[in-house]
Design a protein that fits this description.
- It is a single chain.
- The protein is an alpha/beta fold.
- It is built from 15 helices and 17 strands.
- The strands form four sheets. A seven-stranded mixed beta sheet has the order 4-12-11-10-7-5-6, with helices on both faces. A four-stranded mixed beta sheet has the order 1-2-3-15. Strands 13-14-17-16 form a four-stranded antiparallel beta sheet, covered by helices on one side.
- A hairpin with a 2-residue loop joins β13 and β14.
- Keywords: Aminotransferase, Biotin biosynthesis, Cytoplasm, Pyridoxal phosphate, S-adenosyl-L-methionine, Transferase.
Length: about 450
């Protein structure tokens, strides 16, 4: 084969026509993608390469907390750049990473005490799955048959293979069935579309009873229940009945099963408390963190375990009981510096205390949407809001998916100056926690107008 055959010259014009750009973007149909490229950002606002300013209505995919270019976080990263940008945490560590681990232990619920770092939320969940499995093999009274996981319906825990295995959203996971394991599938603890015969008052009991029946049948082989606490984000901001999380915690204790809580999306203030588990005084055995950990600045995630898990991995090196998992950039010093600065800002700005008023205002901005017959539900917790659009509100009948109603609403909102993304026909609004009253009013006004423009005018 000649070099010319092996490496044909690129036809640049054809390349651009087929893809729109050299950048292949996730969850994006590149054949229909209209470029939206950001040149800079400040506070809660993004500026495109064409000079348009749009409000960051989903916190750059649910991770920006204090706004873009915050001087304290910028300064922390810059200071760390003058010390060390990256070293491995396999067999060594950085002082700033050690400090961050201690801070995470201080702020997370209960006796969570040991932090394993990775680079993204999917990797955090992947580590938790392997951690749980290895724990059951190595604890004082091993139970090696515990190799299965119970996950909720419409679960989403990321896109790596183990995390995909837990997932229950058809378009995200069905194609990859040949390369994943199958979890035991639990209920969808939805507060909007209830099963026949279930009322809002009985929903928690009904869903918890369903989990208990599964644990009764399978607890001998279940290593852990894996769930997003309070809100299933990618499922469409599915909001659980009050008390469901604490019931699952008790059931895990009763049936000797670990509880893994994925707070990649719900952590760091999104639900109105620093961690969603705090709403029901729950301490999971393993807590997964990501997104807001660095304030939305740099890739970093953490898998935080309680002492009884950590202790199962302690032995002489020759016994090979160390955690057989690791990431090149886990615990990266630059990301650690950003995370410390972000965590400090929560205390310095009293941000958590301010969230109750911000939440009330944000929800208040959508009050008039209840008059729109195509708005079926407005749900979520704290600063996580999902607005479900339906063809028939009384029957809760969805629109034909081919109509792309949610996508059209978000496109209209972006044209009006607020960047948001849909999950099907659920319009997601999740502004940075630092958004001002005036900015929240602006978001509400634009989102309401976009919904009206699409659903009322067709």
């Amino acid at each position: 084969m000649s070099p010319q055959t092996a490496y044909p010259e690129k036809n640049v014009s054809r390349f651009d026509t087929l893809t729109g750009s050299a950048h292949w973007q996730g969850f994006t149909q590149m054949s229909e993608y209209e470029k939206l490229v950001i040149a800079e950002a400040e506070g809660c606002w993004l500026t495109t390469t064409s000079g348009d300013r749009v409000f960051d209505g989903v916190s750059s995919l649910w991770c920006n907390v204090h706004g873009h270019r915050h001087p304290k976080i910028n300064a922390a990263i810059e200071e760390q750049l003058h010390r060390v940008a990256h070293i491995t945490t396999l067999g060594m560590s950085a002082d700033v990473t050690e400090k961050l681990a201690e801070k995470i232990v201080e702020i997370t619920p209960g006796d969570l005490g040991h932090v394993f770092f990775s680079s993204d939320g999917s990797s955090s969940v992947e580590a938790a799955l392997k951690m749980a499995l290895q724990y059951w093999h190595q604890r004082q009274h091993p139970r090696p048959n515990k190799t299965q996981y119970l996950a909720l319906s419409l679960a989403y825990h990321g896109d790596t293979t183990g995390a995909v295995s837990l997932g229950g959203i058809k378009y995200f996971h069905q194609l990859f069935a040949p390369i994943v394991f199958r979890p035991i599938r639990g209920p969808l603890p939805c507060s909007y579309r209830l099963p026949p015969g279930v009322t809002p008052e009985t929903a928690c009991d009904a869903y918890a009873d369903e989990v208990e029946q599964l644990l009764k049948r399978h607890h001998e082989t279940i290593a852990a229940v894996v769930m997003e606490p309070l809100v299933q984000g990618a499922a469409g901001m599915i909001t659980h009945p009050h008390g469901f999380l604490s019931r699952v915690r008790k059931l895990c204790d009763d049936y000797d099963v670990l509880l893994i809580c994925d707070e990649v999306a719900t952590g760091f203030g999104r639900t109105g408390k620093l961690f969603a588990c705090e709403h029901e005084s729950v301490t999971p055995d393993i807590l997964c963190l990501g997104k807001g950990l660095t304030g939305g600045y740099l890739p970093m995630a953490a898998t935080v375990a309680r002492p009884h898990l950590f202790e199962a991995f302690l032995a002489k090196t020759s016994e090979s009981k160390q955690f057989f998992h690791g990431h090149t950039f886990g615990g990266n010093p630059l990301a650690a510096a950003a995370a410390i600065a972000s965590i400090d800002l929560f205390e310095e700005t009293n941000l958590i205390h301010a969230l109750a008023a911000k939440t009330q205002q944000l929800r208040g901005e959508f009050t008039n949407l209840h008059q729109n017959q195509h708005v079926g539900d407005i749900r979520g917790r704290g600063m996580m809001v999902g607005i479900e659009l339906v063809q028939d509100r009384d029957k809760k009948t969805p629109f034909d998916a081919a109509e792309l109603v949610g996508a059209r609403v978000c496109k209209r909102a972006t044209d009006l100056g607020v960047w948001i993304r849909p999950l099907g026909d659920v319009v997601i609004v999740m502004p940075p926690l630092a958004a001002t009253d005036e900015e929240l009013e602006h978001v509400g006004k634009i989102v309401c107008q976009a919904i009206a423009d699409v659903t009322e005018k067709g």
